[in-house]
Amino acid sequence: MSDPILSREEVKALYSKHFANPYGLLPLWAKAFTAAIEAAVLEKVCGEPIYQTRWETPATVWGDVPKDAYDDYQSYGYADRRIVYALTRSKP
User: Fold this and answer.
1) Are 88 and 53 in contact (CB under 8 A)?
2) What total number of domains does the chain contain?
3) Which domain holds residue 34?
């Protein structure tokens, strides 16, 4: 693989979006930047994210939901959330 996963411009754009003042960093900003980098790399490597939620009962059943529903579930506090990726591999 000769192409970078993220270009220098993409990393700079993510950095500038989350760090307006690099000398006054807050831990929350660092977490947001880390999450943005992780999501960008996973999307480049693995493709489209799949958003999933589940309720307490049954705890073994995860359901795919649209991104806006996934974001809303965070405010409820009684549902678990996760993002999964389907690995995509190119043919040899």
Assistant:
1) no
2) 2
3) 1-46
